[in-house]
Each structure stands twice: as structure tokens, then as C-alpha cells.
Specification:
With about 150 residues, this protein is of the alpha/beta class. It has a single domain, classed as Alpha/beta knot (3-Layer(aba) Sandwich). It contains five helices and five strands; from the N terminus they run βαβαβαβαβα. The chain has a five-stranded parallel sheet with strand order 2-1-4-3-5. Strand 3, helix 3 and strand 4 form a beta-alpha-beta unit. Helix 3 crosses helix 5. The protein is globular.
Amino acid sequence: MKITLIAVGSLKTPWAKAGCQQYLDRLSIDLIEVSASKQKDPTKQQEEESASLIKRLEKIEGKIWVLDERGEALTSDTLSKDLEKVGDIGDSVVFVLGGAYGLSDLVRKKADRIIRLSDMVLPHELCRVVLLEQIYRSEQITKGTGYHH
């Protein structure tokens, strides 16, 4: 199954870069970064970044799974099973991760599914690390490797 991650902005902190790279080296994922907005106003920043995401989404096929703090909570086992189901029908998944101010309703309306990583709000760089680890964990659960106890 093909998995794509579309994320706003490039990683700035060394720990986030290292953490993401660790999982990207283990996974076969297409990573697409759209530029973070330079707007000072949070609403304008969100709108500009969301417009960039929508442009990218129009060029990619697959189930769109948006990460949003108001989304559905999943366990690692559930994520693994759900990704496996998508793969079994020959589809792909496109994860969408917004910037510091999140995503507009226009992006959420394009989603086939809206999920969250935590009941707590996390910075978007940390979200990218956690998401990649959970995708890796999902693959390991499916393979039965023992990575997930």
C-alpha cells in the first residue's frame, strides 16, 4: 500500500528531524512538504497553508486521512487494522498534517477520515514524529514482529 504524508513546513528542530528520519528510513512513505505561510495573522496563515494543501491533494489519489485535534481517537491496533483494510482493497492513504494553526474547514471537508494522535494538543513537529512512529508500529503489528507488545 502506498502511503503519502503531506505536511506543512519543513522541520526546524534537530530532534524532530532526527526522529522523523529514523522512521522515514524504515518506511516506504512519500513525504511532501508544503511551504509554511509567512502571514502574521493566524487565520490568514491557516487559510494560505490549507489552500496549498488542497492544491496538492487534488494531484494525489487515495483515502485522505486528516490529523486534527477534534478527530477520532485510535489505538495503535486499530490504526494498523484500518491501514491493512485500505491496503487489502488496493487503495492508498494520504495523511494530512497542518501547521501551527491547524487546518481550515475546507481541508477537513476533503477528508475521508479525521483522526487525532492525542487528547492533548501537540506541536506540529512532534505530531510528525509521532505519526511516523505509529505508521511504523502499524506495519510491525501487521507483520507480527514483536515491536508492539
